[in-house]
Amino acid sequence: MPIRKPRISKVSINFIVFGVFLSCFPGCILSATVTLDSIVIYDTHEFIKGVKPIVYFTCQGENKTVFPDVKEKNVPYEFKGEESWQPLTEFSSKKCKRCGLYEKDTFKSDDKYDEWELCPSDFNSSDGKYVRFKSKEFNATFSCPNCLPAASPDSKSATAAPKEEKKNGWHIALVILIVVVILVACIVGGVLAYKFWQKKKREQDQARFLKLFEDGDDIEEELGLDHEI
Ligand SMILES: *[C@@H]1O[C@H](CO)[C@@H](O)[C@H](O)[C@H]1NC(C)=O
Ligand SMILES: *[C@@H]1O[C@H](CO)[C@@H](O)[C@H](O)[C@H]1NC(C)=O
């Protein structure tokens, strides 16, 4: 039967497509934690001498992370990234977050060291680090090793937008490829089914024709007999 073989290959093509689809996921979904490597504060925003600042980091809509050790000006603090208050935040996509460093105040609104858009693509150095420096305020080094695959080395200076577009284009190409493969499989299957049906029909026609021919012979014989009489 010629129809069996194509049916098996159609299934295997679908499996290959599904496999390609699955293997894409680790790259498509980003889950990366951001930790603080080191920090120096140049200002405490405290008017009363001797009052220790409460420095914290937060991203919009997330919990505040207080740095319990950071109390002195011009002293570099180093961290391993495993401290009880780490990590600072987590990226679940390539989207940036509005984050900042602040200094807590009891009697007035908190002082702002800095507030900026923190993006996975900022961690584009080979060791996944990002240095944020603000004159007379602070110098902080953040670390996000898992942000690295998202930030391609060929577009270090580019913003996140074109990268997103590139990824989207790749997704569209994959969807088109899947559609084309399925379409081709359907067409091949359809053509083979039609060929099979045609063959069956031809055989049936042939059988009917032979039967008709035999019947015709009978009639001719009968006619011949009539003529002789
Ligand atoms: C924020 O903190 C609260 C209590 O400390 C906790 O229940 C909650 O899960 C935290 N939310 C996030 C987004 O970490
Ligand atoms: C900020 O800190 C990093 C890491 O400690 C250091 O490499 C860099 O030179 C510092 N930048 C300034 C302007 O102090």
UniProtKB/TrEMBL annotation:
It holds the Pfam family DUF7953. Residues 31-145 form the DUF7953 domain. It comes from the Eukaryota. The keyword Glycosyltransferase does not apply. Keywords: Membrane, Transmembrane, Transmembrane helix. PROSITE patterns: PROKAR_LIPOPROTEIN (PS51257). The keyword GTP-binding does not apply. The chain crosses the membrane at residues 170-194. InterPro entries: DUF7953. This is DUF7953 domain-containing protein.
